[in-house]
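In response to a reviewer's request, we include the raw inputs and outputs for one of the modeled complexes. The two entities were modeled together in a single run.
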Amino acid sequence: MTRWLIGRTAQAAITFLVAAVLMFFLMRLTPGDPLARLMGDRPMTSEEVATLRGLYGLDQPLPSQFTRFVAGLAQGDLGTSIEYRTPVTTLIRQRLPASLLLGGTVLLLNFTLGVWLGALQAVRLGKPLDRWLSTISLAGFAVPSFWLGLILAWLVGIKWQLLPALGMIDPLLPASAGLGARSLDIARHLILPAFTLSVVSIAATMRYQRTAMIDALREPYVRTARAKGLSERRVIWRHAWRTSLFPVITLFGLWLPIVVTGSVFVEHVFNWPGLGSLTAKAISGRDYPVIMGASLLAASLVVGGGWLTDVAYAALDPRTRRAQ
Amino acid sequence: MSDHRGLLEVVDLVKHFRTTGLFRTTASPVRAVDGVSFTIAQGETLGLVGESGCGKSTVGRTILRLEEPTGGSVQFEGHDIFSLTPSELRTLRRRMQIVFQDPYGSLNPRMRVGRAVAEGIEIHRLAPRAEIPERVGSLLAEVGLDPDAAERYPHEFSGGQRQRIGIARALAVEPVFLVCDEPVSSLDVSVQAQVVNLLAELQRARGLSLLFIAHDLAIVRQLAQRTLVMYLGRVVETAPTESLLATPRHPYTQALISAAPEPDPTVTRSRIVLGGEPPSPSAPPSGCAFHPRCFHPKKDTRCQRERPELRQVGDSAAACHHAE
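The model returned the following structure tokens for the whole complex.
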């Protein structure tokens, strides 16, 4: 088990490094100049441009830019944003809480509501409830998130004025407002983006859980459980559902990155002050350090999510868990 | 036949499976069990034999209502099994248990053996909570397993040991009637004898009534006082086991017996080899379902037209027009 764990961890580290190298060079191979936006703001002499290039290390050959980046990374330094002139780590730290809140809410909804509805569908396989839930969830899955976001922002936020459609905090909230009022304000802002992201992602969880549960309900040991004289509820939730959760763990690992990166589109549409909208702006301005920082964070979550899934599998399944 | 009061009385049991095709919602049903009647007396062991697909396992499951019946009735200790409400049925499951064919799939892989055995005791409140571990320990000892088996998972055991766990699990609720659904057919021959001996011992010690389903007449011979032979969902012959083996009346029974291996190499027998495959149970042949494969010298057109009813011939009851 220990050897396996070390091997799996090393594999994750290598994957992360390969991703980092690829991102670093691919980004610089795509057309565009990080200084273009700065030059657009005000005309600069070629000397000024050269100074700026030197400042950000853009005049160096690619390999030495890379070694500089890796050396910084080793010290926890992701460089300085060209557009904001702030350290990338500071930017990420500022944007992270909003993304954690949105992504965490969506993940929570996915793995409570999605898992429950999917299991329920399997129990009612072929019945109207199953068919309706399938239709609704697949329709949600088929809708592009930015389209749904725009429609909801316009309809609920602007036309009906039921919920705030932009940002995370009401700028008109008095400074004296208490913790309760502030939390309520954030919660109201959270509803539309969280709903949009959940609607377009919950179908995957439901489908996964439904299939896993259908398989589990057909297992011979479920018949054994019935033969024991257990109540149908206990047969379904204790024996079948518990086993059916294992395939869903895989999905959890895959969804984990959305906790932080959220959806670039949805954050952009609702002007949610998270990492997604930061990344979107950085990409359009070719702000290399910010793109790199955000991508590395996403990559580490993808790799970390996969690692966590495998470890959870090994720890939870008595058949893969070693006795010693 | 038996002058004991019947513990279990099965009358005209029918179980059809509807198959659904891609373009048709209902094809002609599979007649897995098509009018089977028998009784089992207190403390009696009834053997049920036939080739794969003849419906014998379906009989076992349907009389316990692990499958919903299509027709017929089952009386068990004066209860009409098919008209019980779900909660009445669960209560009665304590009295009637089943040992499944597949010792690998029929135990929940994520449940420790002790928990699997204890669950029935808990549900039916057969012992105070504090005494349950002791009960589990003595049940495991009774089936020949170490008491520390309770702490282990099913995958840590061999097939024979798992079947012992399955038996302990079934006996945990102190049933009076046990269906053994081919309990040894997936085990090694050397292990088969051990498990059969164990079942014989337990039956004597606990005064159980058994329905022992098998395709091997040699095993049924060791356990069953009376034996039922099924072909294509119907009973073709029933007799005290010894007379069935000595003077089989139905040609199908004769063929089955001739197929059983003979341990004495000096005995020469002519093996009856049946032509063709067993017909499809969704389109059984007219008249006597066995007639296309029958080798009886007196076989005639009546066999094709008229379905033979079970009738008394000597010690046996056989469904053959030419049983004499």
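As requested, we also summarize the result in words. The interface with chain A takes residues 61, 64, 66, 86, 89-94, 97-98, 100, 102, 105-111, 119-120, 123-124, 153, 155-156, 166, 169-170, 173 of chain B (CB under 8 Å). The longest strand of chain B covers residues 6-17.
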